[in-house]
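Hey, resending since the last one bounced:
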Amino acid sequence: MVTLQLQLLLLQKPSMHSLFSISSPKQPPPSLHRLNAPRASSSSSQNNTSSRRQLIADTAAAATAATAISLIGGVGGGFSAFAAPSEESLSAWERVYLPIDPGVVLLDIAFVPNDPSHGFLLGTRQTILETKDGGNTWVPRSIPSAEEEDFNYRFNSISFKGKEGWIVGKPAILLYTSDAGENWKRVPLNSQLPGDIVYIKATGENSAEMVTDEGAIYVTSNGGYNWRAAVQETVSATLNRTVSSGISGASYYTGTFSTVNRSPEGNYVAVSRRGNFYLTWEPGQPYWQPHNRNIARRIQSMGWRADGGLWLLVRGGGLYLSKGTGITEDFDEVPVQSRGFGILDVGYRSQDEAWAAGGSGILLKTTNSGKTWIRDKAADNIAANLYSVKFINDKQGFVLGNDGILLKYLG
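The structure tokens again:
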């Protein structure tokens, strides 16, 4: 009954463990032995009971066994058809482990332009880390002027222009350096500042642009001693004044942005806290311009593509790209393998290559300007939400997440 046992064995679906622990047999299967054995003499009583039908059955069983063995790779051969496909490796990224508490959410990163090995990483719980080897290792940085008060600051944004750098956070705090971060000083802020500072951009010598979550934009040209308002009113005031402008959902505006992004040309796009519409601002405009979303799902985040167009993320994992460049309300959906998790940010390495990151370790890549996206499956094992994709240049990039997750681009 050896042949019957082999047939039963072949009918069983092997586990992944059994496939990769089977050793190559030194001898052919028993059924093959039987086929090659010399025929017994006619005087044997046992062979007299063997029928021609049995021989045909044995031959069929042997053929089945040979077929199965060839699928597995042959006697003593390698595995092919039954071998499980290997998971894609995280070839373009590696995780950098940081000396911080697991609950810290990383929020922004920047490097000194003339020294790409020297950079700073910001987060919640008053987290400031510094690197001097391009982001391979990080050490906590203490800034005495940010520790004078009993506050647990959330550092939201950092930016450098030359050796000048700026850091902003919540509660309202502004730090400035003129020596590439060797020393930081605190710049006083007006207590009547509308909203929390969520973004800062170094724009030139002693110059910067600062944005609050209520839509206030301020610019300085003297190292932060004086700030001039670039818009005449907050977004709430604009919406109240233009309540009949036809913006759907404006009456439910909570008064703050959920996200804000700036283009290299100085244009801004921001998403309302509820995600029911978005707003834009261009240099020289006195007010933010609200826009209807022509998409059923609420907006998660928006930003600028490398070609000057817009990308738009909706809740539930949808990704849209604007038609053409510039500010528009016309978008096309792009299929992505988000598995239902929200995508939170998109970062462009070049005009063709971009990466998107989101909830539960979602990491997606495009190499054709966003027309198609491929999910990097190796990132599925990262038990964290990835909030931000930052490319310092075409060779240096990072993905930031909660629980102190930092990924470094390898190329």
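The helical segments are 2-11, 16-19, 30-36, 45-48, 52-72, 235-241.

Sorry for the duplicate.
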